[in-house]
Amino acid sequence: MGITFIAFEGYEIIAQAGDEIKKPKKNIPKAILVSLGIVVSVYVLFAFVFIGGLDPLQIGQPAWEFIGGYGELGIIEAAEYYLPFGALIVLAGGFVSTLAALNATTFAASRVSFAMGRNYDLPPMFGRLHQKYRTPFVSTICSAIVMIVLAMSFDLTMIALAATVMFLFLFAQVNVACITIRRMAKEKISVWF
Predict the structure, then answer these.
(1) Tens digits of residue pLDDT in 120-171
(2) pTM of the entire predicted model
(3) Gyration radius from the chain CA atoms
(4) Alpha-carbon distance 99 to 108, whole Å?
């Protein structure tokens, strides 16, 4: 169950793009809530369709048992009962989702290291922008190298577990920071947008 937490990661990247967002005080909270709402809705609908749409008489057991019996491949096996190319469609969706997650992770990692370079928490070269494209190219290249090395050094399950633990620490830090800032700022911060 702990590894499923990774399916809800990603919305925090919106806050990491704060320097590049118009009216961040208003738009960041809205974007986070809207993105979470969309993701949760899609996941719930997906689960209802795949579990509720399988005919127990056709598969010889309850749908949840059928899907659970295949582990990570349960949704792919269930998709075969819906469409002739159902498994291929689910795999293609997973591939596109993985590419989107990779893009978002690279974006977030490069923006965080860029901000740290700009604030001298990392060497200043991380805070440099490309002259033509105005993107943090050193941070992007270094982040990509680290990701490639990690991806080639560990299996996917180990990377997912490590990422989940790191995200839990990140979220804990963010929550502690929010509570601390709220106590320090008192009425200066509005809690809604």
Answers:
(1) 999 999 999 999 988 899 999 999 999 899 889 998 888 878 888 888 887 7
(2) 0.69
(3) 21
(4) 14
In sequence order, the 6+-apart residues with CB closer than 8 A to the CB of 60 are none
Q: Which spans in the chain are helix H?
A: 13-16, 24-52, 56-59, 63-69, 74-82, 86-118, 137-153, 156-185
Residue 125 makes CB contacts below 8 A (sequence gap 6+) with 117, 138
Q: Which residues neighbour 104 within 8 Å (Cβ) at sequence distance 6 or greater? A: 10, 13
Q: How far is C-alpha 154 from the geometric centre of its chain's CA atoms?
A: 19
In this structure, what token pair is assigned to residue 36?
Answer: 């979470």
In one-letter notation, the amino acid at residue 25 is K
pLDDT for 6-35, tens place per residue?
677 777 788 878 778 888 888 888 888 898
